[in-house]
Amino acid sequence: MLLSMMIVVILLGILWRTSISQAASYPEQDLPDAPDLELVSHFGGLAGKVMVKDNRVYMAQAAEFTIMDVTTPTNPYRIGWHLLPGNVTGFDVADGYAFVGWEQCGWDTCTGGVKILDILQPMSLKEVSSYELPGSAVDVTVVNDIYLYVLWKTFDPLQPSKTWGGLKILNIVNPIQPAEINSIDLSPAPNDIAIAGGYGYYIDNWSLTTYDLGDPTKPIQVDSIEFPGTRIIVSGSYAYVSGPFSILSLIVPNHPVLVGTLTFGGGLSFDAIDSIDNYAYVSEVGRMWNGEYSYGGMYVVDVSEPLTPTQAAYLKLPYGSEGIAVQDNIAYVSAVYNGLNIVDVSIPTAPKIIGQYKAPGEVDDVAISNGMAYSIADYYYPRASGLWVSNIAQSNNPHGVGYSEVFGSRRLAVEDNYAYVLTSYYANNHFNNYIRIVDVMSPTHPIRVSSYPLAIDRWAALVIEAQNHYVYVTQPPQVTIVDARDPTLPVLASIITATQEIMGIAVGGAYAYVSDNGLRIFDISDPIHPNGIGSYTLTDGSGRLTVWDRYAYVVGGNGLHIIDISNPYHPTEVGLLAGAWNVYELAAAGGYVFLAADYDGLIVIDATQPENPFITSSYSFGVLSHTLGVDMQAGYIYLANYRDGLYIFRYNPLVHTIFFPLITNEYGGSK
User: Fold this and answer.
1) Pair (348, 426) in one structural domain
2) Do 320 and 374 sit in the same domain of this protein?
């Protein structure tokens, strides 16, 4: 009998795996350290460098190398993506391959390298080889489909201002086996290099150095001038340098000569540059400058008279851009926090946006509802903070559909057709704390309908939950319950006061579960009069929590506590998994618990036997990467990973156990 049951379970597992593999049009990217996790998709992250070739745009989005089809510029869409071990720093595309530089930085060091990807089938990108560097990759350039020039940099952890780097020259005739043929040491660290006409123009914060690359195996330095810059490109007989914008004559290619400059408002450095015909296009990221915010955007410069370049146009973009590429009178401009802007520059003096690829740059929290992923970011710049709505009907290829600016967004909850965004920011000598209510009935046009002010003497950036259109907010040391049944006129329902400091809340059915130096349970069948009915004290304190079925999972100072709440009047601890994590949010299903654990990334815990929980797998995003939010629905895990974007995983417990949990939710619960 037992053997028969095992066979049935295994067959169910095979069928389950088969069904999900058939549903995917993009290949899953396997995780070597977590065989029971399948990375289904990644979406968003800070947008950077852009390149355009034919009808495809290539863009860096944090750790993602993105390929978009722009055959119809007004309707760009993603056709391929690949995750790198760290953030993408630069790339080039040639002969059916992408050469992608990356870096991952820790507390006192950075590592990096180059991944070579086969991009002939963009819906199934394949890594064919890699090359490690002594430090971070800065940028990569392919010349004649034969040579790959790779800039890299590093620093002394004891003297961070002391930097150096180099230039690696690789033979890539066989991309599967790149071979280093030369290496040049550079100090200080390089910023950029442009290669044209057999010469390489290398620029750093102090100088511009020219190398004769006629024989790549024997590069020769032929010139060096004091000229700082951040980016450099070559077009015809001129080089264009950003930081600030400058034009250098290359009529004598081994001796660049400055011929013209142009200062823009504020004199800020620029972050990307491209040129076509008699115009140069430069992009600038928004910055704080002398206490004031500069928006950033795209500048169009008339360079028909190189000695006297003039500003022809300026297109202000929310928070600006770090990447730009121009082709056929279209400028493709990365929007750091908003994806990609496609700009018609057929009239250079009057650029206009004609298309967008929408993707959230920062993701601090995520909630799933009705086939949509709702995420928020809290960056303190206009149009960089707010609520994003992304369509996840195809979990392997989500796409942004709507946005509502909500300044200072911290956490969110979604119920029915409303999103409740908890905002908190410090200004005018006090905290500005609100519940912002956003109507998301039309996901493409979310509309903010009202706000409810919270106490201003302390921040309110912890937890928000919603049930039956009552909103529950932890604002240490209390829980505020707001009646939002009329979303246009929210009113105070009641306040739950603390015995200690309240750090988390989960709401399910007729009960609210509050972490307050342990666990306190309230009957909220009447939210206006919550009634405390049970409690369990933890000697090590408590933080975030979640509830599923008959258990509450509470993070304490020494690990994850599993508390039986089948009798809400007498909760009892039944299990403990020791660990020291900084957990921002939890989700649970079928006896499995998923932790969004800041620097530790995603942690998956098998608690199907509550008295003996154990970690089954984890996924780390790098020592400086913040994992801040998690939600789960229909077998998929949605993870908010700050500036790296939204990750979607599928979890398969059959990898490590034949037990296939029956997922129920008898007692209600929430993430």
Assistant:
1) no
2) no
Q: Which tokens is 51 given?
A: 């390149």
Domain encompassing residue 407: 365-655
Model-wide pTM > 0.70? yes
Question: What contacts 317, CB < 8 A, 6 or more positions away?
Answer: 295, 296, 297, 298, 333, 335, 341
Which pLDDT band, with edges at 50, 70 and 90, does 282 fall under?
very high
**Quick one: 306 and 382 in the same domain?**
no
Q: d(Cα 439, Cα 373) in Å, to the nearest integer? A: 15
> Which residue is associated with the tokens 């707001």?
482
Position 510 in a domain: yes
Same domain, 376 and 299: no
| Distance (Å, whole) CA 148 – CA 150 | 6
- Tokens standing for 16? 């389950």
Quick one: which H or E segment has residue 115? Answer: strand 110-118
E strand map for 157-219: 159-171, 179-186, 192-196, 199-203, 207-212
Residues 329 and 463 placed together within one structural domain of the fold: no
> What's 551's domain CATH number?
2.130.10.10
CB proximity list for 667: less than 8 A, separation 6 or greater: 508, 509, 511, 547, 548, 549, 550, 565, 566
Helix (H) or strand (E) holding 16: helix 2-23
Residue 540 and residue 560 in contact, taking contact as beta carbons nearer than 8 Å = no
Q: Of 307, 341, 359, at which residue does a domain stop? A: 359
Give me the torsion for CA of 260, 266, 269, 274, rounded to 10°: -60
Q: What is the largest CA-CA distance in the chain?
A: 88
Q: Are residues 511 and 599 in the same domain?
A: yes
Residues 383 and 346 in one domain: no
- What residue has token string 């009641």? 494
Give the separation between CA 172 and CA 178, rounded to whole angstroms.
5
Model pLDDT for residues 634-667, shown as the tens digit of each residue = 889 999 999 899 999 998 876 554 333 333 333 3
Determine the pLDDT at residue 19. Answer: 34
User: 587-598 as b/e, with b when 16 or more CB fall inside 10 Å?
Assistant: bbbbbbbbbbbe
Contacts (Cβ under 8 Å, ≥6 apart) of 402: 358, 388, 389, 440, 442, 443, 444, 445, 446
Structural domains in the chain (count): 2
Is 376 found in the same domain as 300?
Answer: no
Q: Which of 314, 338, 359 is the last residue of a domain?
A: 359
For CA atoms 246, 148, 101, 340, the dihedral sign is positive
